[in-house]
What we know:
2 copies of one chain form a homodimer.
Chain A: E1 4-8, H1 14-27, H2 38-46, E2 54-60, E3 71-82, E4 86-96, H3 105-119, E5 125-130, H4 134-141, E6 146-147, H5 148-151, E7 154-159, H6 161-170
Parallel strand pairs in A: 4-5
Antiparallel strand pairs in A: 1-2, 2-3, 3-4
Amino acid sequence: xxxxxxxxxxxxxxxxxxxxxxxxxxxxxxxxxxxxxxxxxxxxxxxxxxxxxxxxxxxxxxxxxxxxxxxxxxxxxxxxxxxxxxxxxxxxxxxxxxxxxxxxxxxxxxxxxxxxxxxxxxxxxxxxxxxxxxxxxxxxxxxxxxxxxxxxxxxxxxxxxxxxxxxxxxxxx
Amino acid sequence: xxxxxxxxxxxxxxxxxxxxxxxxxxxxxxxxxxxxxxxxxxxxxxxxxxxxxxxxxxxxxxxxxxxxxxxxxxxxxxxxxxxxxxxxxxxxxxxxxxxxxxxxxxxxxxxxxxxxxxxxxxxxxxxxxxxxxxxxxxxxxxxxxxxxxxxxxxxxxxxxxxxxxxxxxxxxx
Lengths: 173, 173
């Protein structure tokens, strides 16, 4: 029987994490947006005095000696701040490779994120899901998530560096 | 003529910032969710080795000697992390008191946030707006923001500590 271990990521995992980041972006049909490199991910998570994110991975211990991937899932999160409730956690990605789904690995990893979130005294755990991704929506809703976009009407906006440069140039204040 | 200065917040500003956080939440009709205290805001922003947020304020220099508020606006942001593009900035709140609007203070403060974001090498600036808040939506759209909820279908989900405790309790992994 296969043994899977959920553990904190290490610097040496970054190559496989980037491979899975690309797989997830492809599933989300947004892979043209992926610009991250192994070097940047390693620096930001493992070589900064204040790492920019926390990452968990699922290791496939059975396949250590065999062919196939060593890591089959990851969950990457970071601290955010709510002016209403204080320190919070945001789950950027939770991914299990398709061929390793249906064994409860997503649940185990998400429970580990929940535990981490509670241990650090976070007031909330938030995340974003694409509206057509019904399996992700069911996964989170069955665990108690509220859909704030539907219930309160929150919409997400993004500025790119070119927008910011224009604003800086126009600032006469 | 009134002189207004946009500057980094200091620990001594937290009482007025919390006053404005409440004003903004009231405008957003969600003030029952505000639990932050002056002590928590001060600790998280000014007494931690890695502060959890950055805050700018607008100071009304004319009224220093007179009645009326010393601070008339604030912008609070924090770092986030994109697995596609790396270090990013999230603008949690941008607020100008209603009686001080129409003088370009929001633009000046937002330009200062943009400058800060660029200086720190962030790949994106993101924020959330309530769908009925047309004046905020126009403000951001006229500066180039893309509405990711509409264009890509992102929806925001939230878990509260009671959800997380249930998951932790059920985790047998």
